[in-house]
Amino acid sequence: MKRIILIGYMGSGKTTVGKALSKETGMMFYDLDWYIESRMRKTVSQIFAEKGEEGFRKIEYNMLHEVAEFEDVIISCGGGTPCFFDNMDYLNQQGDVIYLKATPETLYKHLLMAKVERPLLKDKTSEELIAYITEHLKEREPFYEKAHHTLDVNVLDNYDKIATSVERIKSLLSL
Description:
Helices cover 55% and strands 13% of the residues. The chain has 7 helices and 5 strands; from the N terminus they run βαβααβαβααβα. It has helices at residues 14-25, 32-40, 44-67, 87-94, 104-113, 126-144, 159-172; strands at 3-7, 28-31, 73-76, 96-101, 149-152.
């Protein structure tokens, strides 16, 4: 039984790497946000709008405890998941946790392309966005750094580099 749990800031490539790793290993892949949306029949944005962040985090906590009990899975957590309740300690008990680490500049480039899809970012100028990422990452990094492993993903800009990251994870975890 194996569980690989990917954490990191939004835009770090958790879903991209998780899908590629799943394809390579044959393990099932679960994106926690997608799982929540499927179970709640609402988008994360709708849940945030209706219940606020606190309400969303309670749902996220419950869904995390569901999916993290599955066997032979790769789980991609939301960027905030490790930062609430006892989630980070729980994740470390459930499987091999890998922090996909990227600089604010790299995250900015990734998020710029998906800005409209992320409610927290959609109305920010470029300058506001880089400042927000930098500050927010500083707050979250102490949680992320509790992961068993850290993988530098500043180079995830093409399929070859994604494949290299997958190979590094496989080697790290002896898969």
